[in-house]
Amino acid sequence: MAFRELVFTVSEDLAENLGDALMELGALSISVSDAAADTEAEKPLYGEPGLTPDRQAWEQSQVIALFDEEGLTATEISLALTEEGFQVNAPTERSVEEQDWVRLTQSQFDPIQVGQRLWVVPSWHEAPNDPNAVCLAVDPGLAFGTGSHPTTKLCMQWLEEHPDLASKTLLDYGCGSGILAIAAKLLGCGDALGVDIDPQAVISAKDNALRNEVVVDFRLPEEDTADSQHDVVVANILANPLQVLAPALCQRIASHGHIVLSGILERQAQEVIDTYQPWINLHVWRECDGWVCLTGQLNETQSEAQKKTLKTTESVNTHSRKLRVLGVSCLTLLSLLVLAQLFYLTRHGLALQLAKLPPVLQEPGLKTFKTIDGWLCQQLPCEDIALRDFSAWAIELANLKINPPAKLGSEVTGILELQIRNKLDAYVAWPHILLSITDANDAVLAEKLLSPKEWLPENDSFTADKGLRGPSEISSNVFMSLPNAAAGFRVRLLYVSDNAPQINTEDSKESSPQQPPSSTKE
C-alpha cells in the first residue's frame, strides 16, 4: 500500500495544535522536525535526561502528517484546517511507497564515533575498519544511554582521555543502560560497579555487559550496602539529584580519586560546583550543545575532611541504629504487654472457643492454653472462674412426679428428677434451674428459680465445687410443694446474677428469664 505525506511549515507555537488537528482528520502519524535541518541554522532540542524539553518545536517547524491513499485530499484537509481557524500555507504533498520499515529505520542509525577510539555500533552494522577502535555493541533505543546524547558523550570522552584506567576501580552511579561502566571496562578499567534505582535498567545493563563480553557488577541501591570507595566515580543524571547525592557520592571517592558529573546544563554548573565545595573542588571539564561535564580530584586535605565526615556519618548512623533497636524493643515489649492483657481479659472466652473445637484440635489447643494461662496467672492475680455457657449443657432427663394430696385440702408435693450433661471438655459453672409449673391447659401456675445449691444433690463434693468438668453428667432429685392444680411443667437452664431476685410465685404468668435458656423439657 502506498501512503501520502503532507508537509506543513509553521511557527513553533502552531506545531503541536496543528499535529493534534491532523490526527483528528485521519492522519496515521505525526512527526515534527526542524525546517532548517541539515543547514547551519539547525538547532538541536534537548531536555534534561528523563524530562520533556522546555520547547516542543523549532522557530520554523515542519509538521509531517502521514495519510493513506483513501484519506482526505490535500485540498479537503486544507479547507478543514481553515474552518478550524488555522492560518497555514498549502502543504507539500509527496508519495511514500511501501517499504521494509524495520530495515529503513535501522539504516538511519550508523555507528556513532564518541571519541578518538570509542564507537557505539548497532548490532546490524559492521565495526569500523580501525584497529584502534573500541566498539560498544549497544542498539539505539532512547537517545540517552547510547552515546548520542551530549551528556553521555562527554562522560565517555573523559574516560577515553584518561589512559590510566587500567589500575583504577570505577563506580557508575545512576548507570541506566550501563554504557559508561561498559565503556570503562573496554578501555581497560579494573573492577567496575554500576548502581541504578530502576530494576529494569539493572537488567538491561547486565544484558549489555554480556553482549560486550565484560564483567560489571550492576545492582540496586539496597543491594549496594558495602559503601565501597572507587578511584573514579561517574554520575550522569540530573542536576538536582546530583546536588542531593553530593555527600554520598563524595564519600565513595577513594583518596586522590576523581569524580565525573554530567547531565548538567551550563546555567546549572556553578550551583552544582558550590554544592560540592565542602567535599571537593569541581570545574567544568568540557561543554557540548549547552551541557557541561564537571570533574574534580580529591586531594589530601579534602580526603581527610571526607574521612571526618564519613566518621561523623557513621557515628550518627550507629546512634540512629541504636535508637531504632531501642524503639523496636520498646514497641515489642509494649505489644507483648497488650497481648498479655487482652489474653487475660478474654481468657474465659478463648477457653470456651477451644473447648468447642473438634477433638483433634481441642486437646493440643487446650493444653497450650492452660500452659500460657498458668504462667500468666503466676504474674497477674487470676481467679480460676468456671465458664458460663448455656450451650455446654444438655438436659438428658427432666421429669416432675406429682404426688396427689393424702386428703382433701392437704398440700400437693412433687419430685423433680433431673439429669444434665456438660458436653464440653472444660470446667463449666453450674446453671440455675427455672421450673415453670402448668395446669391441664398449659397455663403457668407458678415458677420456681432453683439455685445450684437448691437443686444439686446433698453432697459436699458437688455443692462445694462451682461447676463440673466435662464431658460428664450429674443426676438430682428435688422435693418441693406444688400448686393444687399442677398438671405439667417446663424446665429451663439459665445463669442469673448473684443479686437477681428469686422467682417463686403462685398463680403467676410465665416470666422472662434474664438470659435465654439452653434447652426445654416437658
Task: Supply database-style keywords.
seven-stranded mixed sheet, 32% helix, alpha+beta, 522 residues, 13 helices, disordered C terminus, elongated, single chain, 24 strands, five-stranded antiparallel sheet
Q: Major sheet: size, sense and barrel closure? A: 7 strands, mixed
Average pLDDT figure: 81
Question: Helical percent range?
Answer: 25-40%
Shape: elongated
How many DSSP E strands? 24
Q: How far apart are the termini?
A: 95 Å
Taking all Cα atoms into account, the compactness measure Rg is 46 Å
Strand content: 25-35%
Ranges where pLDDT stays below 50 over 5 or more residues in a row are: 498-522
Structural class of the secondary elements? alpha+beta
Number of distinct helices? 13
Strand order of the largest sheet: 10-9-8-11-12-14-13
Describe this structure in words.
- By secondary structure, the protein is of the alpha+beta class.
- It has helices spanning 12-24, 74-83, 101-107, 150-160, 179-186, 199-211, 239-244, 246-250, 269-276, 300-355, 359-379, 452-455, 460-464; strands at 3-11, 29-34, 60-68, 92-96, 112-113, 118-120, 134-136, 170-173, 192-195, 217-219, 230-236, 253-265, 283-288, 291-297, 393-403, 412-422, 427-429, 432-438, 444-450, 467-469, 472-482, 488-494, 504-506, 520-521.
- The protein has a 7-stranded mixed β-sheet with strand order 10-9-8-11-12-14-13, sandwiched between helices. A 5-stranded antiparallel β-sheet has the order 23-19-18-22-24. The chain has a 4-stranded antiparallel β-sheet with strand order 2-3-1-4, covered by helices on one side.
- Helix 4 (150-160) packs parallel to helix 5 (179-186) and helix 10 packs across helix 11 (359-379).
- Strand 8 (170-173), helix 5 and strand 9 (192-195) form a beta-alpha-beta unit.
